[in-house]
DNA sequence: GAACCGTGGAT
DNA sequence: TATCCAAGGTT
């Protein structure tokens, strides 16, 4: 059982969104920036920031010359700001060690900060046309349904997930990358998590899940992450204060964003440890590298 | 493998 | 209103 390449690619040619990082003129650096930004953040929120970043920092070396604080400020509220710091570090490594050219080799990409199993292969495939399995949450869900006949993907296992997709990836290098992009697009637009639009699906007739009568997901319950009241929320509030000021702030300014002093201290400390916040000589706090 | 790391729109 | 979920990575 697999996902028919002709049906999928025809559908993709007709239906795919016109996203800027998919255009032929987009550089590998543009692809890398998009992949980092898209980690756990929806396309609609990424797109405007991506345009700003590529206009401001068209090359890795351009970004490497910016301060961490500038990059964090430009990241805005995309979330998980450690991604911005890691991308900045990756830009520095690419400028220093790779001639200002984003590597095309999966293992070389994996060695860069913030680039894991998904992003390394996404860059190799989408920026350089390499034939390698690209497995994100959309692909996992499409494969679980269309190939395995399950209601949803089970817990992730990089080794198994990569093997699953390798098994259905077209052999020709020239079509493999488009096939991966099409699988992702199918998961994003049609084979969605909540209400799949099976009536619009190009591979409906071959879908193992549909043929099995669309049984409900039978695997272990997925852990839902809380947000309200967590350190994640408090760190976000603290960082928001620093993003909004050009000058370092006194601690009193940070104390007002959250009532629980113990949690506040813990979060501020972890932000310092993570390098997302810096303390100035006079004891004030700021984004890193700007003072 | 599990916990942790932001944010906001959709349902 | 509460929950779900979005092109993951690191520890």
Automatic annotation (TrEMBL):
Essential cofactor(s): [4Fe-4S] cluster
Q: Which keywords has UniProt assigned to this entry?
A: 4Fe-4S, DNA damage, DNA repair, Glycosidase, Hydrolase, Iron, Iron-sulfur, Metal-binding
Q: Which InterPro entries match?
A: DNA_glycosylase, Endonuclease3_FeS-loop_motif, Endouclease-III_FeS-bd_BS, HhH-GPD_domain, HhH_base_excis_C, HhH_motif, MIG/MutY
Catalytic activity reads:
Hydrolyzes free adenine bases from 7,8-dihydro-8-oxoguanine:adenine mismatched double-stranded DNA, leaving an apurinic site
**Quick check: keyword Iron in the entry?**
yes
Q: GO MF terms on file?
A: 4 iron, 4 sulfur cluster binding; 8-oxo-7,8-dihydroguanine DNA N-glycosylase activity; adenine/guanine mispair binding; metal ion binding; oxidized purine DNA binding; purine-specific mismatch base pair DNA N-glycosylase activity
Query: Is Zinc-finger a UniProt keyword of this protein?
Result: no
A GO BP entry is: base-excision repair
Query: What SMART domains does UniProt report for this protein, alphabetically?
Result: ENDO3c
Which PANTHER family does the entry mention? ADENINE DNA GLYCOSYLASE (PTHR42944:SF1)
Q: Which family does it belong to?
A: Belongs to the Nth/MutY family.
What name has this protein been given in UniProt? Adenine DNA glycosylase
Provide the taxonomic classification: Bacteria, Bacillati, Actinomycetota, Actinomycetes, Pseudonocardiales
């Amino acid at each position: 059982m697999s996902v028919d390449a002709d049906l999928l690619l025809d559908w993709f040619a007709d239906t795919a969104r016109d996203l800027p990082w998919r255009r032929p003129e987009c550089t590998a650096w543009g692809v890398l920036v998009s992949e980092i930004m898209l980690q756990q953040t929806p396309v609609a929120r990424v797109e405007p920031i991506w345009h700003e970043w590529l206009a401001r920092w068209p090359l890795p070396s351009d970004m490497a010359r910016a301060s961490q604080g500038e990059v964090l400020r430009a990241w805005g509220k995309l979330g998980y700001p450690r991604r911005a710091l890691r991308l900045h570090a990756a830009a520095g490594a690419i400028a220093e060690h790779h001639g200002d050219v984003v590597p095309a080799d999966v293992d070389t990409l994996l060695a860069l900060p913030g680039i894991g199993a998904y992003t390394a292969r996404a860059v190799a495939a989408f920026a350089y046309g390499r034939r390698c399995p690209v497995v994100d949450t959309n692909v996992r869900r499409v494969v679980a349904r269309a190939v395995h006949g399950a209601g949803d993907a089970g817990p992730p296992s990089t080794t198994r997930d990569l093997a699953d997709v390798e098994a259905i990836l077209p052999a020709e290098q020239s079509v493999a990358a488009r096939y991966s992009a099409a699988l992702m697009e199918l998961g994003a637009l049609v084979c969605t998590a909540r209400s799949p639009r099976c009536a619009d699906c190009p591979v409906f007739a071959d879908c193992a899940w549909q043929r099995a009568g669309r049984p409900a997901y039978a695997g272990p319950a997925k852990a839902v992450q809380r947000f309200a009241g967590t350190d994640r929320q408090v760190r976000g509030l603290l960082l928001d204060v620093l993003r909004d000021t050009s000058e370092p702030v006194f601690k009193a300014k940070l104390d007002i964003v959250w009532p629980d002093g113990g949690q506040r201290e813990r979060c501020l400390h972890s932000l310092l440890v993570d390098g997302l916040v810096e303390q100035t000589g006079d004891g004030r706090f700021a984004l890193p590298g700007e003072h």
